[in-house]
Amino acid sequence: MDVVHLRRGGTSVVVSLTDARLPRVLHWGHDLGDVAPEHLADLERATRPTIGDSAVTYPQPVPLLPQLAEGWLGAPGLAGSRDGRAWAPLFVVVGRTLVDDDDRDAAVLVVDAHDAASELGLALELRLEPSGLLRTRATLRNDGDPYRVDRLELALPVPDRATELVDLSGRWSLERRPQRHPFPLGRWERESRGGKPGLDAPTVLLAGEDGLGWRSGDVWGVHLGWSGNQVLAAERTPAGSRLLRGGEIVLPDELVLARGDEVVTPWLYGAWGAGLDELSGRFHAFVRARGTHPRSPRPVLVNTWEAVYFSLDLDRLLALAERAAAVGAERFVVDDGWFAGRTDDTSSLGDWLVDVERLPQGLEPLAERVHALGMELGLWFEPEMVSLDSDLAREHPGWVFDAGHGPGLPSRHQHVLDLGHEEAYTLVRDRVSALVERLGVDYLKWDHNRYLTDAGHGPAGTPGVRRQTLQVYRMLDELRARHPGLEVESCSSGGGRADLGILERTDRVWDSDCNDPHDRVDVQRWTTLLLPPELQGAHVGAPRAHTTQRVAPLETRAATALWGHLGLELDLTLLDDDELADLRRWVEAHKALRPLLHSGVTVHADTQPEVRLEGVVAHDGSEAVFQYVMLDRPTVWPPARVRLPGLDPERIYRVEELVVTATVPAGRRPPWLDDGVTLPGRVLAEHGLEAPSLDPDRSVLLRVRGV
Ligand code: DGJ
User: Is 337's C-beta closer than 6 angstroms to any atom of ligand 1?
Assistant: First the structure.
């Protein structure tokens, strides 16, 4: 087995194991079909490059772990040393295992390697999942005196026609903004050094054919399943290599392996597709197949944050809960502000004791009422944070992270609690756990609002980001084990921690603090690169968005939130009976659609810049829902036809407007919208339908059913 061919989910991965060298991926992408062993050997020979000016600069296929010692002049996959020795390892493969029995399971290749001179062992694992998602990780073992690891980063090659890079950036309330540019020579690197992927997280770093879009252009992307410091990089050398890489960023001395110790890297996930929809479909299928993926219908929730902020008391919460139940909510989430002293954001993080001044009877009466109304109860925590104005910080100042200059800059008046102190970890875990137990909390909104800019572990101030990340994972695992059925939302000032590491132990992410549909549609669109809609919290906010002051009608706000894990985040007590009835209709519409929305294939059309077209198509192609959104006034009028992607080209479909509370006004409606049309999927995708003439920030929903 010198050349291994793995095939799953429309994907081929061909790996060379010749010459006892670390595995080199020769092909990752389109399914190559059955390739006989002798042809695989020839594929390997056909991929061997001409040797140019020297053996070091020739474009050799680069192993999963690029090594300086075999001529890789870019960043080494492993950087480290044993007091200045063993810094340029050269691994020799000593064993391989391939499990490739049943294509309903992953094909798994594990390669064991050793470098006797460096006294290091290495196992590389490569899994091709049934969806065609590829993932890889390394285990490094130290067989000698303590070995300090500075970098352990894996790399997947992309073909030379991947000439364009796309990644995401963003900021608070405007997460996941794409940026594009040609794949440059050198290293394009996106680092997250704030102890989490961040609001500007690249999320998936993509390289693909020029002009790649949602529906066309071969494209490859990587994501790191890790919630701490990390880097994703695209690296291209003058010798012809193009790599997508990723790994944890290790701070000085954070990772020192004693003799016999080993470390396992986070998974580096890779997906490819002919267009971004196919690529993201591979992530979605993988995520949905996980044992921890939520299986029950996603409960429609009401969240109190933008409804009351810190102005809460029992009466106000009870009034909201009654209204929540009346509009059909299934979960009631008490956000920030419920604990002692927390009347604004300047104090009390870390204490986690119910505020008996504003809630003299505790939260029990609310918990009882919420449950009696048939809803689940959610409660907000920020377990990794501490306010200096808190009993916790006053009693244990040494538990606040400090890299040698005191607690550092406050951010939102708060600091980071060092969970590397076992007593701090235990105290917070047990306080959260006690409240979950006492109140019957069904759901935690787990927030994280400050970057780890000065995460020094006391008393010496040594770097503590890596340990903090592992402690957070541990706390989530322990809480979920103690409280079976407890669901958790990963929130981080919005979408600052949305990665497959945190999602192994949480049930949704909060995409963004922005509930304005104008911006939100793109936040959701690009979050969907990685996560299916049911893992994305999506809320209907107030008519005037709190983060942008833009005003949008209920129809646009609700039609945009409809796709994800639906929530309502507005003061329901301000709504009159008609408005409540309208909201209830949207909740009902969502409930009717959610089996499709939360299981189907997400699709996006490549449209003119002012327009978005989002959709979900059932896996069997039998039905679909689309949202056509006009974000801005197009310079060309009328806008281009609406072409519906992802339908079965051979099938005949009925397309009708999905009216929940309001319809496209007369004069704005193309004739077909009045009675619907019946057309083949191919016609709908290629020829399309005349676009409704919508004003900015208006949208229309289309219901599509096979006839
Ligand atoms: C930031 C979150 O993103 C918001 O949704 C809200 O929970 C606030 N924190 C509360 O402080």
Answer: no
Inter-residue contact 380 to 392 (CB < 8 Å): no
pLDDT number for residue 53: 72
CB-CB contact of 511 with 523 (8 Å): yes
User: Which residue's CA lies nearest to atom 2 of ligand 1?
Assistant: 493
Say how far apart CA 279 and CA 499 lie, in whole Å: 16
Cβ of 431: how many Cβ atoms within 10 Å?
18
Write the single-letter amino acid at 237. T
487-490 and 164-171 strand pairing: unpaired
Ligand 1 centre and the CA of 490: distance in Å?
11
Ligand 1: distance of its center to the CA of 305 in Å?
Answer: 7
| pLDDT at site 49 | 83
Q: Which residues are CB-contacts of 703 (< 8 A; sequence separation ≥ 6)? A: 623, 624, 625, 655, 656, 657, 658
How far lies 132's CA from each of 547, 599, 660, in Å? Answer: 39, 18, 38
CA of 195 to the centre of ligand 1 (A): 18
E strands along 533-676, which residues?
536-540, 565-568, 601-604, 611-617, 623-630, 652-657
Bridge partner list, 223: 269
Ligand 1 atom nearest residue 445's Cα = 7
Nearest CA to ligand 1 atom 11: 336
Looking at the CA of residue 491, tell me the nearest atom of ligand 1: 3
Convert the pLDDT of each residue in 589-637 to its tens digit: 999 999 999 999 999 999 999 999 999 999 999 999 999 999 999 988 8
Q: Is the CB of 513 under 6 A from ligand 1?
A: yes
Q: Is the CB of 489 under 6 A from ligand 1?
A: no
pLDDT digits (tens, 9 = 90+) for 330-384: 999 999 999 999 999 999 999 999 999 999 999 999 999 999 999 999 999 999 9
Q: Is any ligand 1 atom within 6 A of the Cβ of residue 338?
A: no
**Sequence-distant (≥ 6) Cβ neighbours of residue 381 within 8 angstroms:** 352, 432, 444, 445, 446, 447
Q: Which atom of ligand 1 is nearest to the CA of 380?
A: 7
Q: If we measure between CA atoms, which residue out of 583, 613, 580 comes closest to residue 700?
A: 613
Measured in angstroms, how far is the CA atom of residue 449 from the centroid of ligand 1?
8
Question: Using 50, 70 and 90 to split pLDDT, how confident is the model at 44?
Answer: very high
**Is residue 136 pLDDT above 80, yes or no?**
yes
In terms of DSSP H, where are the helices of 499-565?
517-527, 554-561
In whole angstroms, give the CA distance from residue 22 to residue 27: 15
Nearest atom of ligand 1 to the alpha carbon of 513:
3
Q: How far is the CA of 448 from the centre of ligand 1 (A)?
A: 9
Rounded Cα–Cα distance for residues 280 and 277 (Å): 5
Q: So which residues are the catalytic ones? A: 447, 513
**Residue bearing tokens 């496209």:** 664
Mutate to test the pocket of ligand 1, among 173, 449, 508 (most ligand atoms within 8 A of CB): 449
Q: Tell me: the pLDDT tens digits for 389-417? A: 999 999 999 999 999 999 999 999 999 99
Distance CA 649, CA 683 (A): 8
Q: CA gyration radius for the chain? A: 26
Indicate the SS3 state at residue 168: strand
**CA dist., res. 137 & res. 264, Å (int):** 7
Ligand 1 mean position, distance from CA 306 (Å): 9
CA angle (353 as vertex; 347, 358 as ends), nearest 5:
80
Q: How far apart are CA 323 and CA 574, in angstroms?
A: 10
User: End-to-end alpha-carbon separation of the chain, Å?
Assistant: 50
Task: Count the residues in the chain.
Answer: 707
Task: Looking at the CA of residue 510, tell me the nearest atom of ligand 1.
Answer: 3
Beta strands in 143-196 (DSSP E): 147-157, 164-171, 174-182, 186-192
